[in-house]
Amino acid sequence: MVVTATTVKTARKRLKDLVRRVNDDTVAVEIAGKNANAVLISAARYRTLQEATFLLRSPELMDSLRRRAAAESLRESTPTLAVDPATRPRKSKKAGKKRKRKLRAAKHR
User: Fold this and answer.
1) Is the pTM of this model over 0.90?
2) Which spans does this entry mark as compositional bias, Basic residues (predicted)?
């Protein structure tokens, strides 16, 4: 998020434009005063930040998020082997016939 800075005096004069910018351009405007500073953000961004703050206060949720992140990290770092069917070794017909004979012999015992 891009942060723009301005003074209270300038913010007062350009408030309508600043409100449009924080909503359209997803920027934050830091307003610097003599005694204190403030930040102007869109209502949507404010709600998102409030929700994230609320959710991150829950120890159970944080543990769940950590476990999920660890599992995803493990899944991404585990190599997978892709077998090309054209290059996969095929079983010989003789091996298949031998296996069938053994199965028949085992059934008759």
Assistant:
1) no
2) 88-109
